[in-house]
Design goal:
mainly alpha; 11 helices
């Protein structure tokens, strides 16, 4: 195995420190007893208690969780169907256009995506709120879900489906009883990823939202502009922990999928 040189090790350490030291500092100061976020006043969990009494943040958090659950479910369902079409239908007419439309949000700037959806909702005279943000997040996460599920279908043994159909199962029954259980780890990982993307999004939600649909990232951003408080540090710490947990679970599901023949 080729050993890393001192310069490369130093660059890696500096890069990881630049990325993660601010996050670690935020987590540490969420347990700060002082109201001044830059002055350490001792260890305390009082700001987590204060956070639980902050109805505005709690309402925004509950809205974000509901929105992420619905949009992740919608994105995963549509992404699974798109992955099946791309993995099973071969080189059909319009495949490149279809694939490009599904995967475009992956490479398109979020500002462009959000602005395009805003113009669509305004032109269609749709009242902006919970469901417009849900549609926007599902559109954004669709491509990610499609890629994750498609990677699982790439190594799928289709002889199992053919055996089920030889025994009289219809294509729909074959999908529910054979295909879906075998690709379930990939589908679950896609859902976790879509849930995380929705929970963490600020830019697209800012364009697609309306009165009464303020998500947690939007609420935190509005509060930070008036000054950082220890309650915000506590809320961000909980959010970081939730996102990290979802990413870890998704990674474990993908590893399990690969270990079982994915």
């Amino acid at each position: 195995m080729r050993r890393l040189g001192p310069g490369l090790i130093l660059a890696l350490v500096a890069g990881f420190a630049f990325l993660y030291l601010p996050i670690l500092a935020l987590i540490a100061y969420s347990f700060n007893a002082s109201r001044l976020v830059t002055v350490w006043g001792g260890f305390s969990t009082q700001w987590y208690g204060a956070l639980l009494r902050n109805e505005a943040l709690l309402d925004a958090a509950w809205l974000s969780v509901r929105l992420a659950f619905v949009s992740a479910t919608l994105a995963t369902a549509l992404g699974t169907l798109a992955a099946l079409a791309l993995a099973r239908q071969g080189r059909f007419r319009g495949r490149m256009l279809f694939s490009g439309m599904v995967l475009a949000p992956l490479v398109m700037p979020e500002v462009i995506t959000g602005l395009s959806l805003l113009l669509l909702f305004v032109a269609a005279e749709v009242e902006r709120g919970f469901w417009t943000v849900t549609i926007a997040h599902a559109t954004f996460a669709l491509g990610f879900s499609c890629i994750v599920v498609q990677s699982r279908l790439a190594g799928f043994d289709r002889s199992l489906e053919e055996a089920a159909q030889d025994l009289g199962a219809t294509p729909l029954v074959t999908f529910w009883t054979v295909t879906l259980p075998l690709i379930w780890p990939g589908v679950a990982a896609a859902w976790m990823l879509a849930f995380t993307l929705s929970l963490d999004d600020l830019v697209i939600a800012s364009f697609a939202t309306g009165p009464g649909a303020t998500t947690l990232p939007m609420r935190l951003y509005s509060a930070i502009r008036l000054g950082v408080s220890p309650e915000i540090n506590a809320a961000c710490t909980i959010m970081i922990g939730s996102v990290a947990l979802a990413v870890i679970v998704a990674s474990l599901l993908l590893k399990r999928e690969q270990a079982t023949g994915g």
